[in-house]
Each structure stands twice: as structure tokens, then as C-alpha cells.
Amino acid sequence: MLRGNAILGQSGGPTSVINASLSGCIQACLHEKAIERVYGMRYGIEGFMRGDLIDLGAEDPATLEALRATPSSALGSCRHKLADADFPKILEMLKKHNVRYFFLIGGNDTMDTIHRVEDYCRAKGYELTGVGIPKTVDNDLFGTDHTPGFGSAGRYVALSVKQAGMLARDMKKVDQYVIFQTVGRSSGWLPAAAALAKTREDDAPHLILLPERPFEKQRFLADVKGVYDKFGWCSIVCGEGVCYANGTPVSASTTGDKFANIEFGAMGGTSAAMMLHRLIADAFGWRGEFQVCESLQMCAADRVSPGDAEEAYACGRRAVELAAAGTSGVMVSIVRESSDPYRWSLGTASLAEVAVKAKPMPDEYINNTGNFVTQACLDYLKPLVGPLPEYVRLGVRG
After folding, report:
1. 76 is a domain residue
2. Residues 25-80: pLDDT tens digits?
3. Catalytic residue check, 203
4. Number of domain units in the chain
């Protein structure tokens, strides 16, 4: 059995349950005989290269347990794309601290980081066991049924759209439409979660715009007008990454991050919701509003899905179990065994595959007109988001 120290890190955007994974990983490391000391890298791989570490074994056990219900990224995060010049420095730090177990919690880019570091160490003859712990609110991570963090973010979206939709319905004589924008660069899982808010035909949302389908201006305006003619108002949910057929973002944003990912609304740019608002106002002369919550969807501890927190914690613990058993080069994955009743187990996915693939919504989850989701999608989403509150209306029977 490989003996040495462990290093843990968090990368990319936070979630409401990423610290539950961190808690599970730390606690499991502290009880693993092969692991002598447990370090945390402050601000991801960038902090590790600077030697910015924290001794997690010195933390109060009560603090480590309380991490399970603490939002955001307790170790701090980064978005750093590894360059060739980084690897010698990383190996130097691994050797300096006798790190033999390498755990990162994150999405596709994070899994690519673990994969490349592990490959480099192998080529240099340094024994290192690397295991990834999944995280993303986008739910676009390949190799897992769903990703810890998504269920809670989906719950945030569904509750927000449900409650804001009630406000918009009751204020339709003043404002005729409302647009809610979710995060999610190229996948529609989060905007799709808003559909769970709907229990009656006229409930919000009425239209859902997904990055998997090209945006068509005239068709969109016709859909909005059709909803308005039927109900007197319209609720629209859009993913931030919706694009025209030629790939141009509806947000008109072209600013990219270090991974060449578009940063929607960055540098003073407009959001997709703002552009849709303008299109509707210009076409019909109506009053309306748009809601762009940005990172609030990623860190709302008051809206955590209980099942999401449980799975996140379990993924952190399983990563250590796999590493201690000599398994390397994998990410912990969640396997859905049944949707009703909901049952799950843990598996693995190859880092080499996870790092280069994404998981868009399948076609069977999107309706034929491309402006809402299907029952199959709702069946997939329900156990992840959890039950939503029911509200009453005056003057409605049955």
C-alpha cells in the first residue's frame, strides 16, 4: 500500500454542497492508515504551486463536520488552465510535501487537471494516486447520471421561477412578461429544472430556452405572443448560453476565460435575459422584467436538496476508498438504479474520458418545438430537486 500524504482542492465555481464532498474526503483521509497527513490547497492548483497549504488534520472535528452544511468553496477556488511550465513546479511541491494522494473536486476542467498531473508524474517516475470528485451546477459532466451541486441549484431555480411566476401572474396588468436566466454555458439542465415549478397549464414557466436548441427570433416572439394571448402574461426561462444557429450568443458576449469558455455578460456585456427583454419590448411595447441571479444559484444553503448533500458527502468518502485500494485515474460517479422510488449507487468514470467530453440534455428530454421539456425529463429531475411547496389560489376549485 502506497503511504504518504494527501492533498485536497476545489476548482471552478462553487456549489451549495461542494463542501459536503470536501468534508467526506477529509474525514475519510483522516481515518485511512495509508495517509499520514492531510493538506488542503488554498485557491486550487494555483495556490498549491505557491505552497499555499492548510493542515486539515489540525482542524476541529466539529468544524469538519459542519462543512457538510456550509456553502461555497471553503478552501477557495481558481480557474487555472495548466501550462507546460506548471508541471515541474507541481511535481516539486508534491515531492516536498510527500503527497501521494491527489484529490480535486470540480468539473470537466478540474478532471483534466488531475488527469494531466497524474500522467506527468507517471512519466517522471513519481507514484501518485489521483481521484476526481464530481461537482458542477450545470450537470454537464460526462460519466455520471448527475453531478453533486446540480440538484440544489435546480431547486433554487425551480423555487425562484415558481415564486416569481406567481408574482408575475398577479401583476400581469402592470408587467406582461418575466424572464429568468440561469447559469449554464452549453447545457440546458438548469433551465429545464424550472419546469418542476409548473402544476397547472398557466403556471410559470411557459417557455424554456435551452442551449441545445438554436434561438430563432421570430419563432420566439410568436411563442411569446401565443402565451400572452392565452394567459395575459408570459414566463420565460433561458440558459445563459442560448445561441443563434450560427453560434452567436443571444447575450452578444464574446469575452472568453482561460479555458476559451464564453463568459456571458462579462466586461459590461449584456445578458441573454436582457436581450430577450429588449426583443419583447420592441416587438410588442409591453412592460416586463428580467432576473439574472448569477452565482446565487451556486451557493444558496437555504435551498439545498437533502439528497444532493448526501450524495456529495458520499462521493468525497468514496474517492478516498478508491485511492486507498490503489484505484487511480478515475472520477467518482453516481449511478441511478431507479427513479421511482429513487435509488442510487456509486461507480467510477475514466478521467481521460470525463476531461474531454460533456453531457448535453438528450433529445428525448426536449419537446418537439424546442421550447419546453418532456415528461421523461421531469421524471429524471424530480428526485434530484426534491418536492416543492404547493401554493393556493383564490377563486380556483378542484
Report:
1. yes
2. 999 999 999 999 999 999 999 999 999 999 999 999 999 999 999 999 999 999 88
3. no
4. 2
